[in-house]
UniProtKB/TrEMBL annotation:
It comes from Rubripirellula amarantea. This is SnoaL-like domain protein. Residues 26-127 form the SnoaL-like domain. Coiled coil: none annotated. InterPro entries: NTF2-like_dom_sf, SnoaL-like.
């Protein structure tokens, strides 16, 4: 597992609470996604968390988040993550990242671009809205007819 982050200076500097929130978000990316440790969901997500964009339905609560996390990690092996940027102000955050790994069924190496924005509550991830390039992922896995897309959209 590898983890990489491009760190840029913040102006004004982060407050102590923002530093703590940023550390929790970074730890979740590294330990939660790369290490495939679903038990960490409880340590990083608020009990009443609401997460969208990871699954067709909105994920509500840590039990659903843990199950979704476990299912996603089971499909993508040898994961690595790059955090392109993390912007945090108060309890609000925005993150851009890329995951790389090998898709379990096909054995194909893929990269998955993702962005997330949300809020923290009580020092935990409370709301998270994910924007994931599933079109690119499905294309790499051969599950999407890119010729047909080009034909329709140019």
């Amino acid at each position: 597992m590898s983890y990489n982050e491009e760190v840029f200076p913040t102006d004004p500097p982060l407050t102590q609470r923002e530093e703590i929130n940023a550390a929790l978000l970074r730890r979740w990316l590294l330990a939660g996604w790369e290490a495939n440790d679903s038990s960490l969901v409880d340590e990083h997500f608020h009990p009443q968390c609401i997460v969208s964009g990871l699954a067709p339905e909105v994920i509500e609560g840590v039990d659903e988040m843990r199950a979704t996390h476990r299912a996603m990690c089971a499909r993508l092996n040898h994961r690595s993550a790059t955090l392109h940027f993390l912007v945090i102000r108060g309890d609000q955050f925005a993150v851009s990242m890329e995951f790389e790994g090998r898709q379990q069924d096909s054995g194909i190496d893929v990269a998955l671009e993702s962005a997330c924005f949300g809020t923290m509550k009580d020092g935990l991830i409370y709301r998270a809205h994910n924007i994931i390039d599933y079109t690119g992922l499905y294309s790499k896995l051969g599950l999407l007819d890119t010729r047909k897309l080009a034909e329709h959209f140019g």
